[in-house]
UniProtKB/TrEMBL annotation:
Pfam families in UniProt: DnaJ, HSCB_C
Name by which UniProt lists this protein: J domain-containing protein
Annotated segments matching region Disordered: 58-81
GO function term, MF aspect, one: protein-folding chaperone binding
Xref: SMART domains: DnaJ
Length: 193
């Protein structure tokens, strides 16, 4: 099954097998986006290794390389390129990667839903951070808040890595929800700057 558009976003659980359609008889299939890029499956990804594998796949499967091929080859090349781009976008961003890893582990319902904050302390922190972002107008204060948010995001990503390595799925789900909110706060800060 080729994952595209809405079924990629809402159906990570469908991503058990990833296919790059054949061009001139060459079929490429893998069990996951990690396999597609030749990476070890899991949350911890070396960004440089991912980028190098992405560029290599794009070089080999880019539609421009098949412009002189048959119409079918050109269409398949476009599908391959789209899939490679989607896989890269998923694995590049920690939040999307966490959702994908959870889905691969059979926790798709938790990874694609919005998730609610069950921890009252975290809920208060999120509410206070949102109020602070909305109340600040000074760019220096917003820059400082952005730095603090980036530090929180990095801490959460580190904890997520540990949770995934330990196969602590409940903790990984909680941290993915936390990362989602930290990311949104960062986006709100960026919009104000």
């Amino acid at each position: 099954m080729l994952l595209t558009g809405s079924n990629l976003t809402t159906g990570f659980a469908l991503a058990r097998r990833v296919y790059l359609p054949a061009i001139s008889g060459h079929q490429f299939a893998s069990d996951s986006y990690f396999d597609l890029f030749g990476l070890r499956s899991g949350f911890d990804v070396d960004p440089k290794e991912l980028e190098a594998a992405y560029k290599d796949l794009q070089r080999r499967h880019h539609p421009d390389r098949h412009a002189m091929g048959s119409e079918e080859d050109q269409e398949r090349s476009a599908e391959q390129s789209t899939l490679v781009n989607q896989a890269y976008a998923t694995l590049k961003k920690p939040l999307q990667r966490a959702k994908y890893v959870l889905a691969q582990a059979g926790h798709a319902e938790a990874s694609v839903g919005e998730g609610t904050i069950e921890d009252p302390e975290l809920l208060m922190k999120v509410m206070e951070a949102r109020e602070l972002v909305e109340s600040l107008a000074d760019s220096e204060q917003l820059q400082q808040l952005r730095k603090e948010n980036a530090d929180q995001q990095e801490r959460c990503i580190q904890e997520l890595g540990s949770a995934f390595r330990e196969r602590s799925w409940h903790k990984a789900i909680e941290l993915t929800t936390e990362l989602r909110y930290i990311t949104r706060i960062g986006e709100a800060i960026s919009q104000k700057l």
